């Protein structure tokens, strides 16, 4: 059986096994402490900025304008420089990790991870991450599987939400410490080797930007801008960061975004960037990722149709406003 990118499984046995492993291997979800060892703080009450969906949409379009952000291309370098510039404008501190990772065919791939930190002295922290590269091939396309893709949703949308959030953090300082991690070389992998994906995140998890870095929890944003998108509570996310994910879903529903954030269990276990953050960095992290009710990805996933035309401001708004509501009012209220 092929192990596919962001592999989906609905086997009950796998779900039971995963749950059993979590109960024995990670106790952070079941007590009053977080991965920093500190007690959780009370709900923070205060005004919440308005997430500007038009701004986020423009950030998607800007990334797409560079061309496919594939390792070893001019678009990779140009987009990285732009992302670094934006985060330097808004963040307290910016870290840039430049390294070389090994691809599925033993090729050497330049990897650029970019981290923007807010309130660096704060002990209570939330890690927000997204990948900014694009898959080199439209291997799920019905016609030409060798064509390059724009990656407007799969990559650029998550980055755009975090850039707009960073702009808001700069305008109105949150109480919590925030780290925005934009990872590279996520989507270069081979379907026959699950570990060949998420290479930038694997590197960061083993070599964090600050030695010994910890956060209370993390949130991964992947494919969060598509029209008609729905987000289900993914299996590994429930295993490692179920309480934190439920907080986010509850806030989204309270804000009126129940059409986007669904509580139904569709049985999906997805291998994505949150897995190495959970298993290597040991930071409880959940994945916000577009899924269909039948467990499949959106029809534009890894096809030439993943372009700016699939991006919907309403989806960006639902995700971004929920994020701001959580960060400013109850980041540790799970």
UniProtKB/TrEMBL annotation:
Signal sequence interval, chain numbering: 1-20
Domain Peptidase M28: 113-326
GO molecular function ontology, one term from the record: zinc ion binding
Record keyword Nucleus present: no
Ranges that cross the membrane: none
The entry's keywords: Acyltransferase, Signal, Transferase
Coiled-coil ranges from the UniProt annotation: none
InterPro entries, per the entry: Peptidase_M28 (IPR007484), QC/QCL (IPR040234)
Keyword Transferase included in the entry's annotation: yes
PROSITE patterns: PROKAR_LIPOPROTEIN
UniProt name for this protein: Peptidase M28 domain-containing protein
């Amino acid at each position: 059986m092929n192990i596919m990118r962001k592999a989906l499984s609905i086997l009950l046995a796998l779900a039971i096994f995963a749950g059993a492993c979590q109960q024995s291997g990670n106790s952070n979800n079941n007590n009053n402490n977080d991965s920093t060892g500190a007690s959780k703080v009370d709900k923070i009450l205060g005004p919440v900025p308005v997430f500007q969906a038009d701004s986020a949409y423009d950030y998607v379009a800007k990334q797409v304008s560079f061309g496919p952000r594939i390792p070893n291309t001019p678009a990779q370098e140009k987009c990285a420089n732009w992302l670094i510039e934006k985060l330097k404008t808004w963040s307290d501190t910016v870290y840039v990790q430049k390294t070389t990772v090994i691809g599925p065919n033993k090729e050497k791939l330049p990897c650029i991870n970019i981290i923007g930190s807010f309130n660096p002295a704060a002990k209570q922290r939330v890690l927000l991450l997204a990948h900014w590269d694009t898959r080199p091939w439209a291997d799920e396309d019905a016609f030409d599987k060798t064509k390059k893709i724009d990656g407007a949703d799969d990559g650029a949308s998550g980055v755009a939400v975090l850039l707009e959030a960073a702009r808001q953090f700069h305008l109105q300082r949150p109480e919590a410490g925030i780290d925005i991690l934009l990872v590279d070389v996520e989507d270069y992998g081979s379907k026959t080797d699950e570990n060949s994906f998420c290479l930038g995140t694997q590197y960061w998890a083993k070599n964090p930007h600050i030695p010994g870095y910890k956060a209370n929890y993390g949130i991964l944003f992947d494919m969060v801008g598509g029209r008609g998108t729905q987000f289900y509570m993914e299996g590994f996310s429930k295993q490692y960061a179920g309480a934190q994910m439920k907080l986010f879903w509850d806030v989204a529903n309270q804000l009126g975004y129940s059409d986007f954030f669904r509580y139904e269990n569709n049985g999906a276990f997805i291998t994505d960037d949150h897995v190495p953050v959970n298993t290597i960095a040991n930071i409880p992290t959940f994945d916000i990722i577009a899924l269909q009710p039948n467990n499949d990805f959106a029809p534009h996933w890894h096809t030439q149709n993943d372009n700016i035309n699939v991006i919907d401001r309403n989806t960006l708004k639902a995700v971004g406003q929920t994020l701001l509501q959580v960060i400013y009012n109850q980041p540790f209220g799970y």
